[in-house]
Design a protein that fits this description.
The structure holds two protein chains of two kinds.
Chain A: E1 17-23, E2 51-55, H1 61-67, E3 74-80, H2 81-86, E4 91-94, E5 103-107, H3 113-125, E6 127-131
Antiparallel strand pairs in A: 1-2, 1-3, 2-5, 3-6, 4-5
Chain B: H1 2-8, H2 11-21, H3 27-49, H4 51-109, E1 128-130, E2 133-135, H5 154-166, H6 197-207, H7 214-233, H8 248-269, E3 277-280, E4 286-291, E5 295-301, E6 310-315, E7 320-324, H9 330-340
Helix pairs in contact in B: 4-5
Classes of the chains: A alpha+beta, B alpha+beta.
């Protein structure tokens, strides 16, 4: 039986971007948001393992969307790696998988719930939509 | 002497001379004879000066030069073809961006009745339904969004495309989207799902609070109705990845808290609070989220700690508040904060 070789882990430079899938079903009427802003509920520490993202060098936004279980209900947002690393507690790690070599994790979400909220708010500020290009598209998704 | 030499090389004179010497020889025979002599002399001289080799070398050199020229020409042709292909690819990219933008803008100008959104469907053929017609967000192979949908007015889309093409810059950052606040036209205030008794009483009690001015009251009521429909629509496996359904009790707890907050704020300051957004979060908690130009404040209600919500707020001047407080005490911290921005 062929032995599975470990995938090579690379260092993600600060100038690169990370994509993240965001389920559009979570979008509801957003008061005070401009068209290009990402809502605060787009970020969460999944099962405490870090937030799943994809390195743009190896995975396009469209590919990432296609990799999700329900592509048609997923939007994609992007974040600059340098900006994420400016938040002291966060780490950006390349964690390739056989399915997606660009798979990366944002780690370091604090256990304190208030701190977690703060982090979500900061991540929201440095993110922008890729698919769809702005929030007005999303309004047609729900009865709002 | 010169004239004699000239005469001797005159072909007609030579022929006449030959005919004179050989009167029985015809003109044709004379010409053949001269021809054979000239050929003999030519070959003799060619062999004598080694002209054959020289001519071969010249021919070879000429051939090499010709090949070199052809190779250069071919290189230029290939380069131009590659350049042309690149330009075509670039053009296609720009075109797809423009199409994406024009259609994005088209969304802003067109009203959709989206009440009848299709339930979750695994088929890749459509993204969701608008006006009973499927909408594909990504039909094209490009990485950019390709929204394909039927507009109410095709002419609108053409105009937008034309305007976008005429734009001086093709860089997407140059498009000014900042001033486009999200406007939800055709707001449906009636709930899609029947309210349970408990929710009726919740909102009926709220109805009795006549001190709210009508507009603010109506907005909050709509927000609560809409968020309820939304939370209920997120049933088992709402994300297609096996997630649990949202717990309506969490929503009920959060909205009850919100109504009490409104009441208390009005009671203390005689002012109405801004209506927040009620957002479901992927970890099945509920956010109550205020966002204005000056500040933002989020209160998060997790399923496990309903009585101990966490909150975080920040303003334009980098002032922050955050913490975890009992639900009965949280207003002592957030009211002064919210009052500053009224």
């Amino acid at each position: 039986m062929a032995k599975k070789l470990p995938l090579k882990v690379k260092n993600i430079p600060d100038k690169d971007f990370l994509f993240r899938n965001f389920n559009l079903k979570l979008i509801i009427k957003l008061r005070g948001y401009s068209a290009h802003e990402v809502p605060i509920n787009a970020f969460r520490d999944e099962k405490g393992h870090g937030m799943s993202t994809a390195w743009e060098k190896y995975c396009s936004a469209k590919k990432l969307r296609r990799l999700s279980k329900a592509p048609k209900f997923n939007g994609v947002i992007k974040m600059n790696v340098g900006n994420i690393r400016k938040i002291p507690v966060l780490l950006v790690i390349h964690k390739p998988t056989m399915r997606n070599y660009g798979h990366s994790l944002i780690k370091g979400f604090p256990d304190n719930r208030a701190e977690k909220l703060k982090l979500r708010s900061r991540l929201k500020d440095l993110s922008e939509w890729v698919i769809p290009l702005n929030m007005t598209l999303v309004k047609s998704h729900f009865n709002i | 002497m010169t004239e004699t030499v000239k005469k001797s090389f005159d072909f007609n004179n030579i022929l006449l001379e030959i005919e004179r010497i050989n009167p029985h020889c015809t003109r044709e025979e004379s010409i053949k004879l001269i021809g054979s002599h000239i050929t003999d002399i030519y070959y003799t001289k060619v062999n004598e000066f080694g002209l054959k080799d020289k001519l071969d070398r010249f021919a070879r050199k000429k051939l090499l030069l010709q090949r070199g020229r052809q190779a250069k020409k071919a290189q230029v042709l290939t380069d131009s073809k590659i350049k042309k292909d690149e330009m075509i690819t670039e053009y296609k990219g720009i075109k797809s961006i423009l199409t994406g933008y024009s259609k994005t803008y088209a969304y802003n100008n067109v009203y959709y009745d989206t009440r009848n959104i299709d339930k979750f469907n695994d088929s890749d053929s459509s993204d969701f339904m608008i006006n009973g017609e499927s909408v594909n967000l990504l039909e094209d192979k490009d990485d950019f969004i390709q929204a394909s949908f039927k507009l109410k007015s095709e002419e609108d889309l053409k105009n937008i495309d034309r305007e976008t093409k005429n734009s001086s810059s093709l860089i997407k950052e140059d498009f000014k989207l900042d001033d486009q606040t999200v406007v939800f036209e055709g707001l449906e205030t009636e709930p899609l799902f029947p309210l349970e008794d408990e929710d009726f009483s919740l909102i009926d009690n709220f109805d009795e609070m006549s001190f709210f001015n009508n507009k603010q009251y109506q907005t909050l009521k709509n927000e609560i109705y809409n968020s309820r429909e939304h939370i209920l629509s997120l049933g088992e496996n709402w994300d297609g990845e096996g997630s649990k359904a949202f717990n309506i009790e969490v929503w009920r707890f959060a909205t009850e808290f919100l109504i009490k907050l409104f009441y208390k704020f009005n009671d203390i300051y005689s002012l109405n609070l801004e209506v927040p957004s009620i957002l479901p979060v992927g970890d099945l908690s509920i956010d109550i989220h205020w966002k204005t130009e000056e500040m933002e404040l989020t209160i998060n209600f997790p399923e496990e700690f309903l009585n101990l919500p966490s909150f975080y707020g920040k303003d334009n001047k980098n002032n922050e508040i955050q913490g975890i407080l009992e639900i009965d005490k949280i207003h002592t911290v957030i009211f002064p904060w919210l009052k500053n921005f009224r």
